[in-house]
Design brief:
Blueprint: E1 2-9, E2 20-26, H1 41-48, H2 64-71, H3 75-89, E3 97-101, E4 107-113, H4 124-140, H5 148-161, H6 165-176, E5 181-183, E6 189-192, E7 199-202, E8 205-206, H7 211-218, H8 220-229, E9 237-240, H9 243-253, E10 257-261, E11 271-274, H10 277-288, E12 299-303, E13 308-315, E14 318-326, E15 329-331, H11 338-346, E16 351-352, E17 359-360, H12 366-374, E18 388-390, E19 402-405, H13 412-425, E20 429-436, E21 451-457, H14 462-465, H15 475-483, E22 494-498, H16 503-516, E23 521-525, E24 528-531, E25 534-537, H17 544-551, E26 558-562, H18 565-571, E27 578-583, H19 599-611, E28 613-622, H20 626-629, H21 635-638, E29 643-650, H22 654-661, E30 665-670, E31 673-678, E32 681-687, H23 700-715, H24 720-728, H25 732-735, E33 741-745, E34 748-753, H26 758-772, E35 777-780, H27 788-801, E36 804-807, H28 820-832, E37 837-840, H29 844-854, E38 861-864, H30 868-877, E39 881-882
Parallel strand pairs: 16-17, 22-26, 22-27, 23-26, 27-28, 28-29, 29-30, 34-38, 35-36, 35-38, 36-37
Antiparallel strand pairs: 1-2, 2-4, 3-4, 5-6, 6-7, 7-8, 9-12, 10-11, 10-12, 13-14, 13-20, 14-19, 15-18, 20-21, 23-24, 24-25, 30-31, 31-32, 33-34, 33-39
Helix pairs in contact: 1-4, 3-4, 4-5, 6-15, 9-10, 16-23, 16-24, 23-24, 26-27, 27-28
């Protein structure tokens, strides 16, 4: 077996509403083999990975995989389960898997769930699948494989790349509250919400955390001064620039003292309860990060406050949680050495390196060894039974300390002091380190008996989320509630438009309606990303990345997203839970691409847009298109309890008639007017001849798009008069370029359109006959990534409407050989119309020039194109002017 490639689908997709990776596997010599063809394989594999015994497989119960291997299953399926098991062994939260055939007889795709916030650029999935392949291969060779050595570096990279405890808790809390979450790259940075409600959080920092407050908190001396000026008790302190100044501070303040850096975090370089000059000098060197030179950074020497260590978390001007902290220590059993006791404590799976676990592993570094020596111990000494041996004096979790929740015990005086301290420094979220005899008692009156040691910006939340003792606190939820108070929105309205034809026009119409209604709209389409009517990014922007671009824009008040098949299949959706989903139609196109072999496959893909709407959201479907209308009956759609609205050109469309009879909503043409209906009530909107770009209704496909857009805009609350005015002013050359636009070039009208499949070409042909009474001449190109059959069918449709055709090829041949597409198109033209006149052209300019030469005076010329910009530039050189409707 070998792994060919892996692609990631970052949003809801056709397999799962969570991220997945799709790994393409070539079974090679194992093609057609089953597990029963290799006696002893299953036993050796399970001996290597005992956890496989609990895999459910399709049986839906533990042991299902073992049963499948006993009956005989293929090795793509086995590799899927081995990959999931290896993934679980390194702590990745990924449980869903599926194996499907793809391409040739030995080609399979493994669909593997990925953790929601795993960086898209990681290679973990590739490495896990490759290790699974090696493990399966080794078991086939007759040995019991040991994947552990190869799994260890993968596990280390997974730990290094996953969200920190605090940030992961924020992401989880946001999702529980329905707030959209996107991790930014591999950082502990979260993008929350959509559009105007988009916020940022970096660990426990919000995008409204004061930069000045953070600077003050980072400068311990400045923070102490501000707190002291505000009457908040703090230790007496001095800044020392040299060991001599540190000793002078010791004499002035009086022993014991604390020596720590002027700026720092996680207890690094902090030395507590020092009384002897040599200790202070050594502490100065450590805290300053130098060797006692005159240019060494200054340190802070403070009076030592006896009592207990506490951390109080202040969020939005109130106490969210409080914990008593205990410094790293071990308890002797009378037989084990200090080193052995440390190792025993570190075996707790809750302990890890840095901040990747609720607790930090104990260490035996220089600081710990020095403190051990003061207690008469070393790594190899054996403490007595029940003897407590301290490893650290400072109680930071990052140095191995533990926490005990005391939130319910905080005395009101202590709470008020902490809230005041946070306000003094100017922090919305901060951790207050303080020492006092008992957090549950009033503040002691004696000077120096209590005080705030530090105000911490971006405080770690893990001591409150998972205290060593006591009740966990939902402090991540408190931070999210600060950013999004209950009842406030985190999302802007989202409209997602899919279908085979009409997506771009429909999206543009909806956006125009919203903008005219005063809503600043972000829009994606095959021509680019627009915000407020201005192009901000030119590209084929109908996939998830462009959707994320719009939804991440703080100025956007509503989003209208063209959602194409390719983006869904290759990347998933770029959003979750649209408010309105529009499916214009589903017809033959893209067949043979991305394992899409039939219209049923297309339906399954495009159905995702209908399935991923919010509960009670609006679903706009084409009543005259069976595949589109049928989406309303899919179980996954019905579970969303949608408000279904049908549109149709005819008021007599059976699906529409039944829907209205049941009290539903619909949009259709009646008595020459676009009409809105609910049940038996009819409301005329505007005459068909007033729809801009519909050429008095002769462009029926444009009228259908207008009905779909009208339904979507009304679902978002756009008033009828505003929607009608938007349709009147939807001038195609400026608002819908490249879609049904007519230009005058000399005596000939030139119809420019993007039609590139049978249904679209048929519609544009019908319009040409209705508008000019005959087809005229067509200059056509078709995309090379379509199947030969689909190219031929589209060409037959061209011949059905146009007796004279100029054929040219796209600049991007999309894998085809030069001349191949011309041959296929000509063949299809002849099949559709044996007497068709066809002429090859080398490029766009040659094609349009030849078509104009072939056309008689006043005859229309249809120009189908690959890219719009070269068409616009060519028309300008020919002196083309927009033609009157």
């Amino acid at each position: 077996m070998r792994l060919l490639h892996v692609r990631r689908l970052g949003g809801p997709n056709v397999y799962l509403n969570r991220p997945v990776a799709v790994a393409r596997l070539d079974l090679q010599d194992l093609t057609g083999h089953e597990t029963t063809d290799h006696p002893g394989f299953a036993e050796r594999l399970v001996a290597a990975l005992p956890g496989l015994r609990s895999h459910h497989c399709s049986a839906g119960r533990p042991g299902g995989l073992l049963d499948a291997m006993d009956r005989g299953t293929y090795f793509g399926h086995v590799t899927e389960h081995v990959t999931l098991e290896l993934s679980g062994l390194i702590g990745r939260e990924a449980y869903f898997g599926r194996t499907v055939r793809a391409g040739g007889p030995g080609d399979y795709e493994l669909i593997l769930e990925c953790p929601r916030d795993e960086p898209a650029e990681t290679d973990l999935v590739e490495r896990l699948v490759e290790l699974a392949v090696r493990t399966v291969t080794a078991a086939l060779s007759g040995t019991v494989p040991d994947p552990a050595p190869d799994l260890a570096p993968i596990a280390a990279d997974h730990e290094a790349g996953r969200l920190g405890v605090s940030t992961a808790a924020l992401a989880r809390a946001a999702r529980e509250r329905g707030v959209p979450v996107r991790r930014v790259g591999g950082l502990n940075l979260l993008r929350l919400g959509y559009g105007r409600y988009r916020r940022l959080a970096w660990a426990a920092m919000t995008d409204r955390t004061s930069a000045i407050g953070m600077e003050v908190a980072a400068d311990k001396r400045l923070a102490h001064r501000m707190l002291a000026d505000a009457g908040v008790p703090v230790p007496e302190g001095r800044v020392a620039q040299s060991p001599a100044e540190a000793l002078e501070a010791l004499r002035e303040i009086g022993a014991p003292v604390v020596v720590k850096p002027l700026s720092g975090h996680q207890g690094e370089g902090v030395h507590i309860e020092l009384s002897e000059p040599p200790e202070v000098v050594a502490a100065f060197t450590s805290a300053a990060g130098g060797d006692g030179r005159a240019d060494a950074p200054g340190v802070l020497v403070e009076s030592y406050i006896p009592g207990r260590d506490y951390r109080v978390l202040v969020v939005g001007g109130r106490i969210a949680a409080a914990a008593e902290l205990t410094a790293a220590r071990i308890t002797g059993d009378g037989t084990s050495t200090v080193a052995e006791l440390v190792e025993r404590v570190n075996a707790d799976p809750a302990r890890g390196e840095g901040h990747d676990r609720p607790l930090t592993r104990l260490a035996l570094g220089a600081t710990e060894l020095a403190l051990l020596a003061r207690q008469g111990h070393g790594p190899d000494s054996v403490p007595g039974e029940g003897e407590t041996v301290r490893l650290r004096r400072n109680a930071n979790l990052s140095t191995g300390g533990t926490s005990r929740d005391v939130t319910d015990d905080v005395h009101p005086e202590v709470a008020a002091m902490c809230v005041r301290a946070a306000a003094t420094v100017g922090m919305d979220v901060c951790g207050i380190d303080l020492r006092l005899p008992d957090i549950g008692s009033p503040l002691p009156a004696e000077r120096g008996a209590a005080g705030i040691l530090e105000v911490n910006a971006a405080p770690g939340l893990r001591m409150h989320l998972a205290p060593y003792e006591g009740e966990p606190r939902d402090v991540a939820g408190d931070v999210i509630d600060l950013m999004y108070p209950p009842g406030t929105p985190s999302r802007v309205p989202v409209v997602s438009v899919t279908g085979t034809n009409g997506k771009t026009t429909t999206v543009r119409m909806i956006a125009h309606m919203l903008e005219l209604h005063g809503v600043r709209t972000g829009m994606t389409s095959t021509e680019g990303v627009y915000v407020g009517g201005r192009l901000i990014h030119r590209s084929d922007a109908s996939g998830p990345r462009s959707a994320e671009m719009v939804l991440g824009d703080r100025s956007v008040e509503a989003a209208v997203l063209e959602t194409a098949r390719g983006g869904i299949v290759r990347r998933g959706l770029g959003y979750d839970r649209a408010d309105v989903a529009v499916v214009t139609n589903i017809t033959r196109d893209h067949l043979g691409m991305d394992a899409t072999e039939s219209v049923d496959d297309l339906i399954d893909i495009k159905a995702l847009v209908a399935e991923e709407i919010r509960r009670g959201g609006h679903l706009v479907l084409n009543a005259e298109d069976g595949p589109s209308a049928g989406l309303a009956g899919r179980p996954a759609v019905a579970r969303r309890d949608p408000e279904v609205c049908f549109f149709a050109m005819s008021a007599d469309a059976p699906v529409l008639v039944r829907h209205l009879a049941g009290g539903g909503a619909g949009y259709f043409v009646e008595n020459g007017r676009l009409t809105e209906a609910r049940g038996g009530r009819r409301t005329p909107v505007l005459p068909v001849e007033e729809v801009a770009g519909a050429f008095g209704g002769r462009a029926g496909h444009v009228v259908a798009n207008a009905l779909a857009a009208l339904a979507a805009a009304r679902a978002l609350g756009v008033p009828l008069d505003v929607a009608a005015e938007a349709l009147r002013t939807f001038e195609p050359h400026t608002r819908n370029p490249g879609r049904g636009c007519v230009y005058q070039v000399g005596d000939n009208p030139v119809l420019v359109d993007y039609a590139h499949n049978p249904a679209a070409v048929t519609a544009i042909g019908e319009f040409a006959r209705a508008r000019w009474g005959g087809g005229g001449v067509a200059a056509v190109t078709l995309p090379g990534d379509r199947s030969d059959e689909l190219v031929a069918e589209t060409a037959r449709c061209v011949a059905g409407a146009f007796g004279r055709v100029v054929v040219y090829e796209d600049e991007d041949l999309r894998g085809r050989r030069s001349g191949e597409m011309t041959r296929l198109i000509v063949q299809g033209l002849r099949e559709g119309r044996p007497d068709v006149l066809h002429h090859p052209a080398g490029d766009l300019k040659g094609a349009l020039t030849s078509a104009l030469d072939m056309a008689g005076p006043g005859e229309p010329v249809l120009l189908l194109y690959e890219k719009l910009q070269p068409v616009v530039e060519l028309l300008e050189t020919l002196g083309a002017e927009p033609a009157a409707p």
